[in-house]
Design the sequence.
């Protein structure tokens, strides 16, 4: 039972043991610690067939001799997680599948099948549903995943999408967020902050021509691509020690990983992969590109740590097999916290993000 | 791939292939056929590791050599599936777990672990959550089930509870709804219509003293007991051919079972198990007790068919091992439809319920 997240600082533990991505948006009485203490008080350790319960991107359970099952669930709520005024149904369908596939990817697993619970208000149109299902199916199909069941209910207001995805992996190749080691290098699987920039652009309802200019960013928000193949390949190399997906922003997610692994991390600001488009948008939006990269949620890129001694081999192998770049952004060290090193200072950004300290 | 439900009468097929319990409450544009045609068009047959996809109480998948995994998900929406003005949080927690455990029971399986997705509005109080978790945990614990993960999100309005439960069974002892045979007897695992009577009593806000008088019925609505042990025992006898749980009322659920099995059923009105309390409440509420038993949803009793030749043995075994009565209410015959035989007529009640024909 890896439940390290339950020890140490309660606030950090709280975030780790249950996925509470969006709870920061609720008032104080629903602080993470408050809610998680409630859950922790009520639910004891899981049974023998559970390898990993609450506290990682997926729960992990025994399947056959060497196989582990992976399971994850995510709920997307209208006007909390998506805005129908700018989110086309087909892309929302793709995203509802993608955010769950990303959790399977984060364990190094292979997704197998999905369940979809749809709560729909009376105002939803058939055409909307057609397009939503088209996107949802496309994303599942691209990863060889079948829809095997679900539930369809009436919602008094707003669409609520709950997706569950089951996957599998060899038991000894599942990668947890709690296994980072001192002197590991810290990597991310793609550029950071693009989805956050895209969300800001959508919120500000930028004109069409700007939309064209920033299409890559808007698309990163509307239609993220889960890094399933990267997760599998990373797992197969045997060099990756800890992994999770980036959904709440690097500063928060890396703090989760460090907390679970009982280590600290130091990030080099100059190494953060921020695309020209994201810098361009940050300028246009008058926000800091570093802030987008550190605080921006919903990147759905993999965040992982690996031994430093074969890092060139790792980048070459990923490039060769997936034609994809990965980015080394810092390293793991003893201690606690996530630190950002810039040209003139090193500051603690754990669970916060850059602008709180600017 | 048992996908018989996809053939035959589209309307019936529609209801069978995806759980659409509450969709009758939505307007015509969301008719079951409409929505299911959309889903059917988009999602092809599942992959090799899926033994049974959309169309039964659970999806069934390959686990190890002889083991099958079972998975089900159910969403409960505030003011659609429950009313907080009369549903105490502890009992709602128990029910949110129970309705999913009942799906595992319906396959003859053993529930293993659960995931909980909670969408909560800002107005929810900590005390309410404490009591909800208490009930949810109690119900899981009573069946040896661990909570292994979930998701907690903000809801702009109303509580939405999505629960996923995973279970297991020997592959060759999973009982599907599609395997009823001609000349089987039709059984139910307990009295019918109590939850429906309880719901009506809650809706009419009957005074406290009547609440005491009808406590058994109100409790059947607020706090149903999933028949997990009965399901396992029935499966172990080898005599049960088809099974499902009663969630939408006997007339509808038995029609699903018949449709999936390509048979008809004849129910003997005089054999329906209707408790004195339910008859008393029906009189008080000025509704037909038969209507409660046939149309009343949320009974969460098992509905099953078994060979007629060992029926006494079956009832004796259930009584001996579980101290529980089961009720033979009719039999399976060739053809299509669900027929109700009363003293003076035999009428088709498929998917409708009694009062449409009264």
Sequence:
């Amino acid at each position: 039972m890896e439940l390290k997240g339950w020890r140490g600082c309660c606030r950090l533990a709280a975030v780790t043991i249950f996925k509470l991505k969006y709870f920061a948006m609720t008032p104080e009485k629903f602080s993470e610690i408050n809610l998680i203490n409630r859950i922790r008080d009520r639910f004891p350790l899981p049974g023998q067939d559970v390898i990993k319960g609450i506290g990682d991107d997926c729960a992990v359970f025994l399947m056959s001799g060497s196989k582990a099952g992976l399971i994850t669930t995510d709920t997307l709520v209208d006007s909390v997680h998506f805005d129908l005024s700018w989110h086309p149904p087909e892309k929302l369908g793709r995203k509802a599948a993608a955010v769950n596939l990303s959790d399977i990817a984060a364990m190094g697993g292979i997704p197998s099948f999905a369940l979809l619970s749809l709560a729909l208000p009376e105002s939803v149109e058939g055409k909307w549903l057609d397009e939503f299902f088209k996107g949802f199916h496309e994303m599942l199909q691209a990863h060889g995943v079948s829809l095997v069941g679900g539930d369809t209910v009436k919602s008094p207001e707003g669409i609520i999408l709950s997706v569950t995805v089951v996957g599998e992996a060899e038991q000894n190749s599942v990668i947890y967020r709690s296994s980072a080691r001192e002197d590991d290098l810290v990597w991310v699987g793609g550029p950071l902050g693009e989805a956050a920039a895209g969300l800001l652009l959508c919120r500000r309802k930028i004109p069409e021509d700007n939309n064209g200019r920033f299409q890559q960013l808007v698309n990163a928000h509307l239609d993220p691509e889960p890094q399933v193949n990267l997760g599998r390949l990373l797992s197969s190399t045997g060099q990756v020690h800890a992994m999770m997906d980036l959904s709440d922003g690097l500063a928060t997610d890396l703090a989760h990983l460090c907390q679970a692994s009982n280590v600290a991390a130091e990030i080099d600001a100059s190494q953060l992969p921020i695309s020209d488009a994201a810098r361009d948008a940050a300028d246009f939006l008058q926000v800091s590109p570093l802030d987008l990269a550190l605080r921006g949620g919903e990147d759905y890129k993999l965040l992982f740590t690996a031994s430093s001694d074969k890092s060139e081999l790792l980048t070459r192998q990923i490039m060769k097999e997936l034609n994809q770049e990965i980015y080394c952004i810092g390293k793991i060290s003893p201690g606690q916290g996530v630190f950002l090193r810039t040209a003139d200072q090193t500051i603690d950004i754990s669970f916060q993000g850059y602008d709180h300290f600017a």
Q: What stands out?
A: Residues 89-105 of chain B form the longest helix (17 residues).
